[in-house]
Design brief:
Length: 634
């Protein structure tokens, strides 16, 4: 692949080329992939209309690029290492040849079950090899996968399955998460009460727990894979045919089904993986994210496999059976590149350092961070204790919507600086906007983080709602992609992401819209109104604080019960990660004269920054602020 950066001058040289002639730049990179037919035009994009196309006219199948292409040279090389939840269970080493066979078998099963090109298949699986097989099997036959994180509730599944009218769900009987065993099939059964589009449920046996199988709808995958061929022709798809849908929380209303298409996503994830992790042949790469998030799609599955890499899939959690699990796995599999989230780093940094010190981490070359701003303490701990001051940290900024990493150091080329994501990757042009839409020139400035020119990996639309796609990302600053984050630029031109500027709160690296949580709370009969804000938390990054007004006075005891009921319904309808850490009942919420809740003030109060609330005299009800402050518990 062209344009893999090896030193800083080369980075600047390549970046100049990429920005001057993006079509030539990305076209040259695309040459090293396998196409059934080459493109007519590299890029055809109008950011004013949110109409973006890459490699138009090209025909391909991404699985030929992830798998078939590598068979001659590295058929016997490990594609996937599977490390199970329990360290007692033997790790699996799945070669590229075995991956080819397993993917093709599942692809044949999908076809037999009536799945055709363009159909949507929902995947609700734990982190087991079948998750990778099923996603790639969909891609093999041109079906669109919609992976739902296997920690989501029935309600969350139903709304996503219905939004995309999925014909099938692939799930497991159960899953292991640390010491817990979860009945996934039971959750799916409940979701399916409200999801009429689903005709078939394929069940993967994992925990062998007892499940109800509905006649005519539910089948065990292993019963079907026994009688199918290990070859399945790779369907021809167009460059801009959707590869997958992945839901992300919006600041308002229902989740957004981000649509990623085939060729551009392929080129972008492959190229950024190669640059950001500087993967070398025979390295072992491990990203600890769940494949249910974009990080897993792009940098556990597609990016690494497109590079013929060995990628590790870990089913478990960092605290089971002990807090040394991550370090034990690094030692066991001699991991070279390790990519995790600040929330994991913070929680592990709190544990006894002996957990780290008893393991040999000398295989590590590159450390990565993703999902939220990494604070300086966490950065330093990671750098000193895990990387032993030897391994550069790549603080990678990107989003579900961007498909791949946009801002990150290139290890061994870009000097790192704690808390800075540093430079844009090749072909990416970040700009910082003032509120009135003026590009902030020069270094040492800040603003809303936008991207000025299209890149191949950007999501093309929101499933069934192009208007919402346009409104959310392209309307604030016409002609620019608006990320929803703010950032600053230092004198060297390095970027530091300072956080969200909309009503999305990132809790333990999970992107949560506050509106759906408020809607859930407001369903309680006694609740009049609610406002959720994030406040700083030393492990989770942010935690949720709910300010709630009630329709009538109730006793203290009833209030305690109501808090529990509220969190139970949030866990049920959205997921346990969205539970509130603090709830304060209050007589009223501060509002503007037009009746809008002043979340800015609530955010300050939740963070205990009462001294700089700003001018509250223009509020409709300034006394609400005082009442909240006086009654705040901690
Ligand atoms: C939001 C996107 C794409 C990876 C997983 C999250 C925040 C992500 C960083 C970083 C500061 C970061 C942003 C972004 N974020 N990476 N390195 N430094 N903030 O994907 O769920 O779509 O969330 O995560 O606020 O907008 P996501």
């Amino acid at each position: 692949m062209k344009y893999i950066v090896k030193n800083l001058p080369e980075y600047f040289k390549f970046q100049e080329k990429a920005l001057k002639d993006p079509e030539r730049f990305w076209g040259a990179i695309a040459e090293s992939f396998q196409w059934k037919k080459k493109w007519d035009k590299v890029m055809n994009a109008d950011m004013h209309k949110a109409d973006i196309k890459w490699f138009e006219g090209a025909e391909l199948n991404i699985t030929e690029n992830c798998i078939d292409r590598h068979l001659d040279e590295r058929g016997d090389q490990t594609a996937i290492i599977f490390e199970a939840n329990s360290p007692e269970e033997k790790a699996q080493h799945i070669t590229y040849r075995k991956l080819y066979e397993e993917v093709n078998k599942v692809a044949n099963v999908l076809k037999e079950q009536g799945i055709q090109k363009g159909d949507r298949v929902c995947i609700y699986l734990p982190m087991i090899p079948e998750l990778a097989y099923t996603m790639l099997a969909c891609a093999r036959i041109g079906a669109i996968h919609s992976v739902i994180f296997a920690g989501y509730s029935s309600t969350a599944i139903a709304s996503r399955v219905n939004d995309a009218s999925c014909k099938m769900i692939v799930c497991a009987d159960g899953s292991y998460r640390g010491a817990k065993e979860i009945n996934l099939k039971g959750i799916v059964d409940k979701a399916l009460e409200d999801s009429p589009s689903v005709k078939t449920v394929l069940v993967v046996k994992r925990t062998h727990c007892k499940v109800k199988m509905k006649e005519g709808r539910d089948v065990y995958l292993e019963d079907l894979t026994q009688n199918v061929s290990v070859h399945c022709p790779a369907e021809t798809v167009q460059a801009e045919d959707p590869l997958f849908i992945l839901y992300t929380s919006g600041s308002t209303g229902k989740p957004k089904g981000m649509v990623h298409t085939t060729a551009g996503y392929m080129i972008y994830t492959a190229h950024t993986f190669a640059n950001v992790f500087q993967y070398e042949k025979d390295d072992v790469y491990w990203c600890t994210a769940d494949i249910g998030w974009i990080t897993g799609h792009s940098y556990i599955l597609y990016g690494p496999l497109l590079n013929g890499a060995t990628t590790l899939i870990f089913e478990g959690v960092p605290s089971y059976p002990d807090h040394n699990r991550f370090w034990a796995v690094i030692e066991k599999h001699k991991v070279n590149q390790f990519y995790t989230a600040p929330t994991a780093i913070r929680s592990l940094a709190k544990q006894d350092i002996k957990h780290v010190e008893k393991h040999d981490l000398s295989s590590l070359k590159v450390l990565g961070s993703v999902g939220e701003p990494i604070n300086v303490e966490a950065w330093n701990w990671y750098y000193h204790h895990i990387g032993k001051e030897r391994c550069p940290i790549v603080d990678t900024w990107w989003q579900t919507e961007t498909g791949g990493i946009l801002i990150s150091p290139i290890p061994f080329s870009t000097p790192t600086k704690a808390t800075f994501a540093t430079f844009p990757l090749l072909g990416i042009q970040p700009v910082l906007m003032s509120d009135d839409g003026i590009e902030q020139e020069g270094n040492l400035t800040n603003g809303k983080l936008c991207i000025k020119t299209p890149w191949p990996g950007i999501a093309r639309t929101i499933w069934n709602d192009h208007k919402r796609y346009f409104d959310t990302y392209f309307s604030a600053y016409p002609g620019y992609y608006f990320s929803g984050d703010a950032a600053l630029r230092d004198p060297a031109g390095y970027y530091r992401i300072t956080g969200r500027v909309d009503d999305v709160v990132i809790v333990s690296g999970h992107n949560l819209g506050t509106a759906p949580i408020e809607n859930t709370i407001n369903e309680q009969e006694i609740v009049a109104e609610s406002a959720i804000v994030g406040y700083p938390h030393d492990v989770k990054g942010n935690a949720l604080y709910g300010f709630i007004t009630l329709k009538r006075e109730i006793s203290e005891q009833e209030k305690e019960q109501l808090k529990i009921a509220i969190n139970n319904s949030i866990a049920d309808q959205i997921g346990p990660i969205a539970k509130l850490s603090k709830i304060q009942f209050t007589v009223s919420l501060p509002k503007t004269r037009s009746g809008k809740i002043m979340r800015r003030i609530l955010r300050k109060i939740a963070a205990n920054e009462m001294e700089n609330l700003g001018d509250t005299s223009t509020l409709l009800n300034p006394e609400a602020v005082q009442a909240i402050i006086v009654n705040k518990k901690d």
